[in-house]
């Protein structure tokens, strides 16, 4: 079921979930990723719990370097050899459960990557090989997926994603940012995956193109796919996300319905991010995130948190989706909640 829609949040009308929705789900429990370096360990993702389902978009937000891309790549088994992954990631589909953590590369290649889970990479333009046309790369992806008529299928995918088939005959440097984006979408969807990981799909695009890309992602959700959107653009997240998870120094510090997390955050970091929005108060959070090689034992945000106290020296428990010893008080959404006077972070946008 969809969570109740709160006023003032991104409003997405309730949708009928497709029949497959019951049998498709990705659930991460305690997902942890570290990179071993010769003289240190980078703790990129620490104990992440989240779930993605068809028809819903989960936006993973957080500052640069907090572990968002590493988390996405961990789901696909696309991490380098010095990565150590623990925890569980269960891919439920067609009445079966597949554990992705530690799954053999052959299984991930044959059953998961591109088929169940598609990746729209960070900076699509640079992800494409410069010396081959978009068509050559898309058709190759289709052949790997066993498509019967790759050329026709490539044309279909191009049109489906707002490209003219002739656009596919261009080399990556001949594509505009928006076109490269659409080629990346077409590649990610070539194998008809039900779950899409979109890693900063709009970095470098200007606002109208961002809005278009977000509308395209929303459509993919509405047609029954699941989307995990990685972004540091809270306004983009607000446009498409049903749920939002806020990441800080490798940890999910607050997760829940988008309207709640973006407009009535309870974790001081999530509140700080909301206040730092360029379209809001634009007040930056003082200080810098910690080095992931030297995370404190307790709350990693405590050094930047004005409310931190002695309790914060031990790791905070996660209660109601919020990992904090002293969360901001919950604000009652009933009776006009989300209206400007009830939302301390909302300085009405134009
Ligand atoms: N192969 C690796 N070896 C060591 N450290 C790595 C490796 N890959 C990533 N890291 C580190 O993991 C941390 C998380 O990186 P990640 O790319 O996930 O950040 P991000 O949240 O996606 O940031 P951005 O918004 O800039 O894309 C960073 O400190 C990064 O330097
Ligand atoms: Ni990233």
From TrEMBL:
Gene Ontology molecular function: any one: ABC-type nickel transporter activity
Enzyme Commission identifier(s): 7.2.2.11
Keyword field: ATP-binding, Cell membrane, Ion transport, Membrane, Nickel, Nickel transport, Nucleotide-binding, Translocase, Transport
Location in or out of the cell: Cell membrane
InterPro entries: AAA+_ATPase (IPR003593), ABC_Ni/Peptide_Import (IPR050388), ABC_transporter-like_ATP-bd (IPR003439), Oligopep_ABC_C (IPR013563), P-loop_NTPase (IPR027417)
Skewed-composition ranges (Basic and acidic residues): 340-350
One GO process term, biological-process aspect: peptide transport
Reaction it catalyzes: Ni(2+)(out) + ATP + H2O = Ni(2+)(in) + ADP + phosphate + H(+)
Coiled-coil region list: none
Gene3D superfamilies: P-loop containing nucleotide triphosphate hydrolases
Principal location listed in the UniProt entry: membrane
Enzyme class: translocase
Similarity remark: Belongs to the ABC transporter superfamily.
Summary of subunit composition and partner proteins: The complex is composed of two ATP-binding proteins (NikD and NikE), two transmembrane proteins (NikB and NikC) and a solute-binding protein (NikA).
Name of the molecule in the record: Nickel import system ATP-binding protein NikD
Organism the protein comes from: Planomonospora venezuelensis
């Amino acid at each position: 079921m969809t969570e109740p829609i709160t006023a003032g949040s991104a409003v997405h009308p309730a949708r009928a979930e497709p029949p497959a929705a019951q049998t498709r789900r990705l659930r991460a429990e305690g997902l942890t990723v570290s990179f071993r370096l010769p003289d240190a360990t980078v703790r990129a993702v620490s104990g992440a719990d989240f779930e993605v389902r068809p028809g819903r978009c989960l936006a993973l937000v957080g500052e640069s370097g907090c572990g968002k891309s590493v988390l996405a790549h961990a789901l696909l088994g696309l991490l380098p050899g010095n990565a150590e992954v623990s925890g569980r990631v269960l891919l439920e589909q067609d009445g079966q459960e597949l554990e992705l953590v530690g799954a053999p590369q052959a299984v991930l290649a044959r059953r998961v990557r591109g088929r169940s889970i598609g990746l729209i990479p960070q900076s699509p333009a640079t992800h494409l090989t410069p010396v081959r046309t978009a068509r050559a790369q898309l058709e190759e992806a289709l052949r790997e997926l066993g498509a019967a008529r790759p050329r026709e299928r490539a044309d279909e995918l191009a049109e489906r994603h707002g490209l003219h088939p002739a656009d596919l005959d261009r080399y990556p440097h001949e594509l505009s940012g928006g076109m490269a984006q659409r080629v990346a979408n077409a590649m990610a969807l070539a194998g008809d995956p039900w779950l899409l990981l979109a890693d900063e799909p709009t970095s470098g695009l200007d606002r109208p193109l961002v809005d278009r890309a977000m509308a395209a992602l929303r459509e993919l959700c509405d047609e029954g796919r699941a989307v995990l959107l990685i972004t540091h653009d809270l306004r983009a997240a607000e446009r498409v996300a049903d749920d939002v998870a806020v990441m800080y120094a490798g940890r999910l510090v607050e997760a829940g319905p988008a309207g709640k997390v973006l407009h009535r955050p309870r974790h001081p970091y999530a509140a700080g991010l909301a206040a730092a929005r360029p379209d809001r108060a634009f007040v930056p959070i003082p200080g810098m995130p910690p080095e992931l090689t030297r995370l404190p034992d307790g709350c990693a945000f405590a050094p930047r948190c004005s409310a931190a106290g002695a309790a914060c020296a031990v790791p905070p428990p996660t209660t109601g989706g919020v990992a904090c010893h002293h969360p901001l008080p919950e604000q009652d959404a009933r009776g006009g909640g989300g209206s400007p006077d009830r939302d301390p972070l909302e300085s009405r946008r134009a």
